[in-house]
Amino acid sequence: MSSHQSSSFERGTDGPKVILAGLDGSAPSLRAAAYAAGLARRQRSLLAIVYVQPVVTAGTAMGMPVPAAPDGLAEDLMHEVRASAERLRDLYEVRWEFHTYHGDPYSGLVQAADELTADAVVVGASEQAGHRIVGSVAVRLVKAGRWPVTVVP
């Protein structure tokens, strides 16, 4: 063992400072956000609630990404997600921020976790049967090995 000790901070060693929760309006994501809110309250961490708005890039709008859902539907979902985040804040009395990213859920959550310097990521288990074969967002986040990931059923 070296007598020289580093004084640099190691992310996550004093408990998480930023807990990221992926929220998409599904029941598992709402449970995950509630779980993350409880963790954030107990750890006195910032809860970063992240909604990733899907985009379609293949040939639409001359190659420019556009919302995957009709404008009204995407807007409605974003309002629903934001309202859910407000309810969580009121229930858990926690410091929180709401962020919207665009893209596929995995890439959006990775980008958010990097930009927000997340110490932990909490997501809901996928409800889609096909994900058992190709792998869910949660499994891909775990495999990335960059943050502790909690998957809430």
Write a structural description.
The chain has 153 residues and is an alpha/beta fold. The chain has a single domain (18-152), classed as HUPs (Rossmann fold, 3-Layer(aba) Sandwich). Helices cover 41% and strands 22% of the residues. It is built from 5 helices and 7 strands, in the order βαβββαβαβααβ. It has helices at residues 27-43, 71-92, 105-115, 131-134, 137-144; strands at residues 18-22, 46-53, 55-56, 66-67, 96-102, 120-124, 149-152. The strands form 2 sheets. The protein has a 5-stranded parallel β-sheet, with helices on both faces. α1 links the parallel β1 (18-22) and β2. The radius of gyration is 17 Å and the shape is globular. This is Universal stress protein. Belongs to the universal stress protein A family. Residues 17-153 form the UspA domain. Pfam families: Usp (PF00582).
- What's the structural domain tally? 1
The count of DSSP E runs of length 2 or more, i.e. the number of strands, is 7
Counting H and I runs of at least 4 residues, what is the number of helices? 5
* Principal-axes shape call: globular
* Mean pLDDT, all residues: 77
CATH architecture: 3-Layer(aba) Sandwich
Q: What's the CATH topology name?
A: Rossmann fold
Biggest β-sheet, characterized?
5 strands, parallel
Helix content: 40-55%
Family: Belongs to the universal stress protein A family.
Domain UspA: 17-153
Pfam families: Usp
Protein name: Universal stress protein
